[in-house]
Amino acid sequence: MSDPKIPANRREFLGAAATAAVTGLGAMMPVTAVQAAASPSTDFTRWLESIPGTQKQLYDMPELNGGMGLLWSFAFFLTGAPAYGLPESELGVVLVLRHNSIPLALNDSAWAKYRLGEVFKINDPDTKAPALRNPFYLDARALPVPIADATLQKLIARGVKVAACNLAMTVYSGVVAQKMGLKADDVKKDWTDAVLPGIQIVPSGVVACNGAVSRGCTYVFAG
Question: H/E element holding 220?
Fold first, then answer.
């Protein structure tokens, strides 16, 4: 058996996504994706309608980029309120995790079990070795500028709407399953169950970007 590799770039990822759809992994998309095509009210559209504020920012994060999307989300809260003369409740931030940033949506158990630091080439700030935990959820030292309020947990608590791309989860969990000799369905379910509290699984990251912009968010590429 050939050794499957994680798609390293967008072209490889799209090829893997197409293969997943042909081989049936595409059928693992949640029911909400099917509903979205048939009804104006779905889990996804209701999530979009929950984006707060009159000034709204979208950070599209297909790559880790050192976690800059987290820092920029913090920066929007820090500077947006005085800039616009608004209370922070009138600021809305959406962070879309897709492609190679998808492990940021998963808890420490998934990172350890599936060695996500090794798979996605993300090191632990303590050991400098491939991370066996999600270093961006609680630990500001993983960021280029170690600001405690810019960790993923703090941002979610502050009201950032975080989306996790289901398509990326399907493709990458399938590749990892093959590499480990496991069933793709089992690994995908494990990853789905490991999504951190406050993070919404969306049909795809690109449709989340489209939906957020359609709800008034300004698009910013963060990776």
Answer: strand 217-221
